[in-house]
Amino acid sequence: MPYRTLGIDLGTTNSVTVWMDGGVPVVLPNRHGEQATASAVGVDADGSLLVGSEALGVRDRLPGSVITEVKRLIGRRHADDDVQRLLAERPADAPPVRESTDGDGGVEIRLGAHWLTPVQISAILLRRLRTDAENTAGEPFRRAVITVPAYFTEPQFAAVREAGELAGFTVVRILEEPTAAAHAFGVERLVEDDDDMCSVLVYDLGGGTFDVSLLIIGPGYFKVYGLGGDKSLGGADFDSALYRMLVEERLGDRDLSGTGDAARIRAASERTKIELSDVPAAEIILAPLGENGGSWTGKVTRDGFEALISADIARTLEITRGVLRETSRMPEDIDKVLLVGGSTRIPLVRRLLTELFGEEKVNSETDPMAAVALGAGIETGLVSALACPSEQCLTTGIPLAESACPDCGTSLLGTATIDCPDCHVPAAEGTVSCPVCARDLSGLRASAPVAARAECPHCGCRQNSTTSTVCRDCDQPLDAGGLKCPRCQMVNASGLTACSACDALFHTDQPEQVTAQNLGLALDDGTVAVVFPAGTTYPTDWQNIEDLQVRPDTATALTFRFVEGPHEKSHARNEFCGQHTHLLGAGSGGAERLVLRVRIDENRTVHLAYRLGDGEEQGARLRRSAVADGIGRDAAHLLDEVHTHLAHFGDELKDAERDAFTELTEQLTATVRGETLGRSLDGFLDEARDTVETCRNARGWTANVSIGARRGRELGLGRLAGELGDARRALDAARERMDLPAMRAATENARSLWRQIDTATWRSMLAAHDAELGRFPESVRRSVLTTWDELRAAATRGDYADQDALHVKLNDLAGHSQAPVPTARKHRDSAQVFPERR
């Protein structure tokens, strides 16, 4: 097989890459020879990029320059209570964090001089992992399987996929970490010649998350039965607990204001935690400390440390028992308890699990630090087909040998990427300027691809092309990235779950995954229509949601919002899962029937098919990241104002105005649908609001001064009528150039001149204008025009008394005008409606 896939364990504290080499998963060391790369990204004093141990090495001398544990923030919103707790517990020397400026409510972290999202930081790390893996393996990797915690939410799944794509991968699978670990366990069982089904409970306590999964695995069978977890509980919390204890109880009133003090205490906390898994007590030496370079020495016992974290460990056991209850299992029904994650080395964890399940069931044979990565590598050998990565194309089942989607032409091999020299975020080769920091990238080119290793494992021939599947000299099959058969040792092609030579079944297979929590549709009354209960196996068939309707009334958009969580009475209390927004036509009103179907694909992506009233059925994927509700509401209101202005005055607009409103409509429509624009949405809406208001005022005052100039001449206003004519020409010129500052200045001048006309006179002018346009009942129209002629005559005579009387009469007749008043439709509070039950 010409295209190889990289397995990546993207961990909170450490990340590992694995590939299938000779039919077995093999860890690929990084450029420093390390089996794992610290999940740390930083910049040196000169702005150069540092990744892994390089970044950790500068934390003490460059506080605030290194980002760690970014996985805990990826795909999450700044306002979430859990995120706020995590931010409050970060060490003092951590980089600043703020709410995203692009309006999606996410998180931004400062790296050097730039503010980056967790997706962008993760992409930097993934690109480094890819580069090191290619240099070690001698193979190009343009596809990847990336692991995530099973209890990640849908937006977090999507964010990891986005980071992988930004790093230049086609992400063929987002794999849940406990499932990956079970892959590794299953392959290890191959040597036992054990054909029995095995009930496995995976207890995964990593650096930043906790997962527990119940799986059944056996020859040609792999199914997930239950999930539980906490995406904000892990070894980093144990480090924090020890850090706080040292600072608050042991170090007392010592000066801790020295450069790097926080980093040294944090590093000592992590090191002590690891040591206490092997020894009953650990000595800590901290030096220098404070501005004067003091020192401190102390001892922490295992019992003391376990007392600090006992409540957290007890919570993991509570979650584990919950999964057993939900799947109707007892501890004695479990065959193996698989320990995954570095924190499972803590003796308290193993002791409590042994008490619950029995010592013989707690498995210590599979390396807890490498199990997930090895499983990611095994998954690369099991993937049998690809899905098109394009959001607009739903093609699936594409053969692994294809380099592009046969239907839409989208590449299935990722993109060649370059690193921005300033912010270090990867960008596709050919990008003119960095979308993050605007650095000119036009002269940069991606490094030459690694030459694929084509050595034949049978005869040593190195002359095979990168697309060869058999050796040109000995005709033996070349390594194609699949699994080795335990019976005949045949190295199979990727995608096979049974040996192509002897038909022996592997002790693992493509997994049947399940949803972690209830997944449902938010309804207009605030409740949730549960579509897929927790534990639903996916991919699923299409599911109908019955008896729905929509009352568009005066709303701008219909929003399909999906949430996941246990709260059926209040969708706002659940986790946001994803949404799709359908723009409603201007004529919508009353109740319309809604037909809605939903399904989940193999990558846990939610697909919709819906029909509103008698309209055509439409399809969509859920957008897993969405702009904040307030931004979407404001954009919907503004979009309605734009539509109203175009409907009433489209024929009067200048070409430049029409072009600007067309572009504005496209951008506002994208914002209402939940798309970000690569810039601050608050700033965009401010600019858009200013454009609409400026254009609306300029058009209105163009009409007013035009009327004033013409009617003023008829009433003998002389100089003022001439100035009003000049104001009209200035407004026209500014509008033809779409020059907003000039339009504002010309509008203010027109308003100032208009104020020089007394109220009775300009009301008479407008009445005569409306009468000429037929905006009065016929009998009133004739009376207005006759009275206006009499007023002109009185003005010519200089008869002021007669003019005053005629103004009073015209002003009274003006009350019968039927001139349209262009106002935006009255909105609901949200400007967006949810479906409701019929």
UniProtKB/TrEMBL annotation:
According to UniProt, the name of this protein is Hsp70 family protein
- Please indicate which superkingdom the organism of origin belongs to: Bacteria
